[in-house]
Amino acid sequence: MKIFDAHCDVLYKMFMDRRIDFQNSGSLQVDLEALQASDLKVQCFAIYVPESVHPEMKFNAALYMVNLFYEKVLKPNPQLKLIRSTGDIDMLKDDETGGMLTLEGCDAVGCDLLKLKTLLRLGVSSVGLTWNYANCAADGALEERGAGLSSFGKGVVHELNASKAWCDVSHLSERGFWDVMEWADYPIATHSNCYTLCPHPRNLTNEQIEALIDRDSVMGITFVTEFLSGKQSAAITDVLRHLEYVCSLGGENHVGFGSDFDGTDGKVTDLEDARKYDNLINELLKYYSDIQAEKFLFGNFYSRFPR
Questions:
Q1: Which is a GO BP term held by this UniProt record (predicted)?
Q2: Of 155, 202, 215, 237, which is least surrounded by CB within 10 A?
Q3: Lowest-confidence range among 103-107, 182-186, 268-272, 303-307?
C-alpha cells in the first residue's frame, strides 16, 4: 500500500552532521534505501532550524537545508521527484517517490514576509507557524504565555492562502490553533496525537480534532513515543490506539501519519524507521479494511493536498 508521510527531520540531521549520505546513511530513519524498501509514495521533508542557530543566521540555515534537499536528496536520485501539488503526485511513476518541502516553524523568516515568499517559491508547500516556543508569528505549544497569532502571523496565513499552501498547526499554542481555524484556507496537523489518551501539550484536544474534521482537514498520527504513551518507549498498538480514537470522533477520513522520523530519540518497537512501515500496515489490516487502511496511509492526506 502507498504511504504519505507528512513529517520527517532528515534535512535537520543532514544539516547538523554534514557527513551523512542520504543514499545509504547508516544513521537516518529515512534515506534512499529506506524509501526503496518501503511503499512510501510521498515523504515530507521538514526545514527545522534549531534554536541553537543565531537569529541572524536562521534564514541562511533554512536556505542551506533547501539546498541539501535539491543537491543531496533529489539531484543524485532521479527516482525522487519534487512534489508541490496532487497533480505532481499523479504524475509519479510506479518506481518514483515524491519529496515535499515543509517549514517547521517561522523562526527562519523572522518578521519578514519576503523571506517566507522566497521559501514558498523555492518549493515549500506546508508551513508550521511555530516550533514549541514564541516567534514573530505566534506562540508555540510550550510557551507559557499561550498567545495566538500576531498581526505578522495573520500576514503569514494570508500568504499561505494565496499560495495554496498548508498551514500546519502542529507545535502551535491552543489559542494559535483557533486563530488558524478562523484565518487559514488550508489548515493541517502534520504530526500530532490525541491529548485525551496522552496529555502532552503537543497533542490535540477532542475539540481541536473535531474542528479539523469540521474543516475537512487531516491530522497525522506521529510516532514520537512521548506523544503516544508519555514514555520513552511505545508499541505499534499505541499508534493504533490514537488512530482509532480519532476515528471514534468521526475522523476516519481525516487521519493519516506523520512519523517524525529523524526528529526524535524514542522509537516505536517494530517501527524504528521507514523500512518497518510494513509492520504498521500488517497491524492495520488486522482491524481495518483495505479501503480504510489505504485512506489512513495515503488517501486522506493526498485528497487534501492543494491542487
A1: proteolysis
A2: 237
A3: 303-307
